[in-house]
Amino acid sequence: MFNIGDKIVYPMHGAGIIESIEEKEVLGNKNKYYIMRIPLDDMKVMIPLDNTEGLGVRNIISEADADKIEALLSSWEGTVEKNWSKRYRNSEETLRKGDVFEIAKLVRSLVLVDRAKKLSTGEKKILNNARQILTSELMLVWNTSRIDAEDMLNIMIK
């Protein structure tokens, strides 16, 4: 269970801070929800308390793990799926799971593909989503602004 003030990640949405825990009625059912503010877009998201594990909600990474992300983004060499439809499906699954290291690899591989040949519109959208999710978490880890986190992310992806 998380507490008010905890910094957490909600896969597919990004990282944020729990502002409150409230009971809300949704579709005729009363449930308790974490009310999380995502500083990246100043958006609020309701997360059902009874399904956080199933949704993949987790604490943000440590500064040491952020350093690992930096190393991964600046030096990761790997194979990239050639078939764009398989790559697209794999990318969607990576975002759903919410593993920050896999998302960093996804960002790096899609940037490499984009440099070699332009990404499809769908893959550009996935790349933008992955970058936003990564940026939102790094903002909270480093306690910095969106612009500074994006700048640092761009420097990491050489």
- Low-confidence residue ranges: none
Could you say which structural class the secondary elements and strand pairing correspond to? Answer: alpha+beta
Task: Please tell me the total number of domains.
Answer: 2
With strands numbered from the N-terminus, the spatial order across the biggest sheet is: 4-3-2-1-5
Here the CATH topology of the largest domain equals: Methane Monooxygenase Hydroxylase, Chain G, domain 1
DSSP strand (E) fraction?
Answer: 15-25%
Average pLDDT = 91
Give the full name of the CATH homologous superfamily of the largest domain. Answer: CarD-like, C-terminal domain
Largest sheet: 5 strands, antiparallel
What's the helical proportion of residues? 40-55%
Question: Radius of gyration, Cα only, in angstroms?
Answer: 16 Å
Give a concise summary.
The chain is an alpha+beta fold. Helices cover 51% and strands 22% of the residues. The chain folds into 2 domains: 7-59, Beta Barrel (Thrombin, subunit H); 63-156, Methane Monooxygenase Hydroxylase, Chain G, domain 1, CATH 1.20.58.1290.
Task: Please characterize this protein's 3D structure.
- The protein has 158 residues and is of the alpha+beta class.
- The chain has 2 domains: 7-59, Thrombin, subunit H, CATH 2.40.10.170; 63-156, CarD-like, C-terminal domain (Methane Monooxygenase Hydroxylase, Chain G, domain 1, Up-down Bundle), CATH 1.20.58.1290.
- 51% of the residues lie in helices and 22% in strands.
- Helix 2 (63-75) packs parallel to helix 4 and helix 4 (100-116) packs across helix 5.
